Amino acid sequence: MAKKLYIFGIGGTGSRVIKALTMLFAAGCKLDNGFDTVIPIIIDPDISNGDLDRTKNILRLYQEIRCQVNQPDDFFSQDVRTINELTNNSGEINPDYFQFKLKGVDGSSFGKYIGFDELSDDALLSEDDKNFVRLFYSDENLKSDLSVGFKGNPNMGSIVLNQFTNSEDFQRFGLTFGSDDAIFIINSIFGGTGAAGFPLLLKNFRGNTGLPRAAQIKDAPIGGITYLPYFSLNDKPESSIDSDSFEEKAKIAIDYYNRTIINQNKINVLYLIGNKSANNIYENFEGKAEQKNDAHFLEMAGAIAVIDFCKNINSYSVDNGVAVNGTQVKEFGVEKDSEVLLFEHLNNENLKLLFEPLTKFRLYTEYLAKGLQKSLNVSRWTKSNIKLVKKSKNSCIDENYFNSPEYKNHIKGFNEYFTEWINEMSNNKPSFSPFNDITPDNALTLVKNKMPKGNFSFKSLDTENCLLIDQNEMKFSVDKKHTTLIKLFGKSTAGVLKKHNLFKK
Amino acid sequence: MITDVFSGIYETIFGIRDDKFSLIFSTLYNEWGYIKLGLTFLFIPLLSWFLFYYVWRYPYGKLWHWALWFLISGIVVFGCTWSLANTIILASNNQQLIDALNDPQSGYKQYASDLPLIYAMINTSLALVLGFICSLIFKRLSKVQMHLPF
After folding, report:
1. Could you read off the pLDDT of A180-209 as tens digits, one per residue?
2. What residues in B contact A387, CB-CB < 8 Å?
3. Across the strands, what pairs with A227?
């Protein structure tokens, strides 16, 4: 039976983990146990945040490509939708629906949001409300612009985010929730938005009777990732975010989570991911478009946690809002510690999950960027005007296709994001850099420390494409324009990597 | 039967027969000469286009690759036919023909020396025509070179 997984990504870290998960889905990773639809929901008050924008754009491209592939079974096989698509039963692609909107945060200060200015500060009349509020919030907090988020202040975040559980978006989430569906929450514990949003969301899932299908949501399996500090920010006197406080904040929040979530078995599984010796330093931006942190290996580890959650879903049960087997706490680790992580440093399970899909997709993106030029309108698989053969023997993906706006905007656009993601992980600390830079002549040496047998060039891939192109499943209808390309490369990359001993036969 | 078919091609269609030098043509007929010549223009293009379309897996094949293959198959047929005709006619074991070739008065030597070139040219032409037809048929089932020659 069809199952849905709702993934709530809170703040910048939430966005980046959803981005990593989308990349894995594009590469052909899929959720186990019948989870055929994923609904990513980003919660971030900073609507112009660079990470958020990039993730929404990647999700949009993923959907644009996927909806033009007939029954995808390899690359882009996991269905990703918005709540709007589910409620309206429409195929309209609008990335704005991946985000839950918060009302009253645009151009508003926190003080204005909580009605601070309307309060009395007359101590003589025993109406000293302002000073009472000042016990909880500094002047800096009260003047803080909410449109850039909570800048590491969960005490502000918990107030503002509380409104959204009564929002129209949240109600619609409830309406679409099915009895076999599950929820996953991604947050970072050392900031503002994520640290505040996680317990708030969980509290509502387990106890908000005002939600449609509240009973089903209350007893749904819920998993979560909480990110411990894994990066720091450079010192910037004018910024109100100080990464020296990350660890302290994390300790305080973890203590709170321990008391209110873990000990009370409110969640089935909690993944804790972090890097204690974090020595990667990002530019210190308080928010908006400038806050666009490089992709990090641990965000991909978060995406693996989502897959792991679905794989073990049958062992999670909930009774009256309490996890029956208690809360499992899991941590992420690599097999061998190294400053530069390669595939061989991952444990066997993660290696099995990532190696083949990522290598295939990397070969596909590198081919389209560096190898296509040689074969376009030369190789049989790119030609649609072959004479004296059946029409079905001609390729659907010819020069016109590769010059079409759909190819240039969707496929090329997504592939550029994938390459950027791989490169950013490679340049971060610790670096996840399993791939070599390649040229068309040594294309098959793409995986570090793995020597292929035979010819290293893209020739094998072009030959494989020629052998596969006239299979029936490669044909597309007018509205499924990317079917041939996506299905062809899903098969041909696997075939070539097997033939050259990079994959097991 | 097959000998009759091939001898018919060379003798009747291309008119390469002169009864004054009947020893040459009877040797070709009796010593499998026509069969060897015929199979040369048949099998060499068949084999070469089979290799081109089903064995050679080069995904970047262009029209000039096809044209070069066409030319090479023609040259191979020319060379093989010339060499074969030389062997069958000028190095025959037929004693009567040997005697005739060695008799300067008979005119055999001069007539026979031109024949390998003529057979080579005929076979090359036939091989090129047959090769072209083969290529149009073979391409339909080829996976990698289906787009050649057009």
Report:
1. 999 999 998 876 677 778 888 999 999 888
2. 150
3. A188, A273
Specify the 3-state DSSP secondary structure of A370.
Answer: helix
CA-to-CA distance for B144 and B138, rounded, in angstroms? 11
Whether residue A117 lies inside any domain: the answer is: no
Q: Domain range for residue A416?
A: 348-499
The residue in chain A having the minimum alpha-carbon distance to the alpha carbon of residue B142 is A467
Whether residue B60 and residue A375 make contact (CB cut-off 8 A), yes or no, is yes
Closest CA to A182 of A210, A205, A162: A205
- Same domain membership, residue A195 and residue A84: yes
- Using CB atoms, pick whichever of A378, A393, A463 lies closest to residue B146: A393
State the complex-level ipTM.
0.85
- Interface A-B, measured as beta-carbon pairs within 8 A, has a size of 48
Is the residue at A307 inside a domain?
yes
Encode A375-428 in three state secondary structure: HCCCCHHHCCCCCCCCHHHCCCCCHHHHCCHHHHHHHHHHHHHHHHHHHHHHHC
Q: Is A465 on the interface with B (CB under 8 A)?
A: yes
Structure tokens belonging to residue B113:
């020396």
My answer on whether A447 and A374 are in the same domain is yes
| Inter-chain touch B139–A374, beta carbons under 8 Å | no
Distance CA A376, CA B141 (A): 22
In this structure, are residues A84 and A94 in contact, taking their beta carbons and an 8 Å threshold? yes
pLDDT one-digit tens code per residue, A98-115: 888 777 777 778 888 888
d(CA A383, CA A391): 11
Cis upstream peptide for A430 (omega within 30°)? yes
Please tell me whether residues A319 and A404 are part of one structural domain. Answer: no
Pairing of strands A322-323, A318-319: antiparallel
In a domain, A353, yes or no: yes
Give, in order, the Cα–Cα distances in Å from B75 to each of A51, A161, A315, A453, B69. 66, 83, 74, 36, 10
Based on the domain organization, do A329 and A352 belong to the same domain? no
**Number of folded domains that form chain A:** 2
Q: Which of A380, A395, A457, A492 to mutate to test the interface with B (most CBs of B within 10 A)?
A: A380
Alpha-carbon span B72 to A268, nearest angstrom: 73
Residues A395 and A446 in one domain: yes
Beta-bridge mates of residue A271 = A225, A330
**Among the partner residues A378, A393, A467, nearest to B60 by beta-carbon distance:** A378
Distance CA A216, CA B112 (A): 100
Length of chain A equals 505
Name beta bridge partners: A89: none
Q: What is the mean pLDDT of residues A33-60?
A: 89
Per-residue confidence (pLDDT) for residue A337, from 0 to 100: 83
Contacts of A381 in chain B (CB under 8 A): 59
